[in-house]
Amino acid sequence: MSMFRMFDMPSAERVQIDRTLSHLVNVARKAKAAGRKTPYVIGLVVDEDEEGELQISQFGNLFIDDSGFNLLEKRMPYTVQEYDEKEGEFVIRFEMPGIPKESISLDVKDKDVRVTGGTGDDSYEKLLSFARPLDTASARARFDSGILTLRIKPREPEKPKVVKVQVE
Fold it and tell me: Would you say 143 and 119 are in contact if contact means Cβ atoms under 8 Å apart?
């Protein structure tokens, strides 16, 4: 019996989802048989980026790409990105339960934010890329109850310089 029978979707779509989930379960079983620690986590988030375009992001330790499902060494944390219009800054939350604050590394460079952290089997890693450069001097981070919150402003575009050239 399909776990998606309760949803109102065409039969062909239910069959495709069931096949995908069956493949996912097989990948997890092979990994477990090879001695990989469980659980295996896969999550998808559909959201809008700062330009209003729909984006799909993934979290967990099972990753989907063109080659299928891949088991990652480190989990990608569930991440929520928002833009605070009032403060003029991005607010990015990374859910990273069970790791000590001291193990977290957070780097910001140009348009990219990279976070890593963890101990042993509880390790996280995530790279986010933004459409606009970020103002690294404005970055503030706080880790509380397993949630890392980064606040950072977009960098203002540089104004073109006008140079007066002496004509001889």
Answer: no
